[in-house]
Amino acid sequence: MNWRTISASTILAASLLVPMSSIAASFNQSQTSSSYKVQTIAQNPSNDDMPFRKRKRWGNKQQRLERMQQALGLDDNQVKEIQSIHNQAKKDTQSLRQEMKVAKQEMRQLMGSNTATDEELRQQYDKIQGIRQQLSLKRFEKKLAVRKVLTPEQRAKMAELKQQRRQRWGRRGGF
Question: What residue numbers bound the domain in which 39 lies?
Answer without folding.
Answer: 3-43
